[in-house]
């Protein structure tokens, strides 16, 4: 697993933690209708979903002739996503890692006790908690890796943009 992470992730390209999340397919996508307009719920909040294979975007690349061209494709690495969520997450839970298992079980309990998520199946709640745990691990990895490489480290989104106080799980 360490080889996969080192091979696929690059702290020099990822200026923020969210770049690791996006490349691993763990970022949040705003749901849109057929016209491309964002969908909202009854209270006016934007509806979001996790990234999947149906989420494609146009992006630029250099073709064989050395010219810049555009194509439609995935914006994340599906192999890395399956390794992180499908393999590493279950290994962390089985190993009973004191930090990340606690994050998983605490978040899972929080989801189970939130009325908004009451209608979701146990499998869906489990997947949400696994995703949250892996995002926490990637955030810690990004911070440590950038520090070791003497690169600037930015505060997490929750601290810098949402004005939340830093605590053990987000800084």
From TrEMBL:
This is Uncharacterized protein. It comes from Lachnoanaerobaculum umeaense. The lineage of its organism: Bacteria, Bacillati, Bacillota, Clostridia, Lachnospirales.
């Amino acid at each position: 697993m360490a080889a996969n992470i080192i091979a696929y992730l690059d702290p020099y390209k990822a200026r923020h933690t969210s770049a690791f999340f996006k490349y691993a397919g763990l970022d949040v996508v705003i749901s849109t209708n057929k016209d491309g307009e964002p969908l909202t719920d009854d209270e006016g909040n934007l509806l979001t979903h996790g990234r999947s294979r149906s989420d494609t975007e146009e992006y630029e690349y250099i073709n064989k002739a050395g010219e810049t061209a555009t194509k439609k494709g995935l914006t994340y690495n599906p192999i890395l996503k399956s390794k992180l969520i499908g393999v590493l997450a279950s290994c962390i839970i089985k190993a009973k890692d004191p930090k990340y298992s606690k994050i998983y079980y605490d978040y899972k309990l929080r989801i189970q006790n939130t009325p908004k998520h009451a209608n979701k199946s146990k499998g869906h709640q489990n997947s949400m908690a696994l995703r949250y745990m892996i995002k926490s691990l990637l955030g810690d990895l990004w911070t440590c890796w950038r520090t070791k490489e003497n690169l600037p480290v930015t505060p997490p989104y929750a601290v810098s943009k949402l004005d939340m106080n830093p605590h053990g799980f987000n800084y």
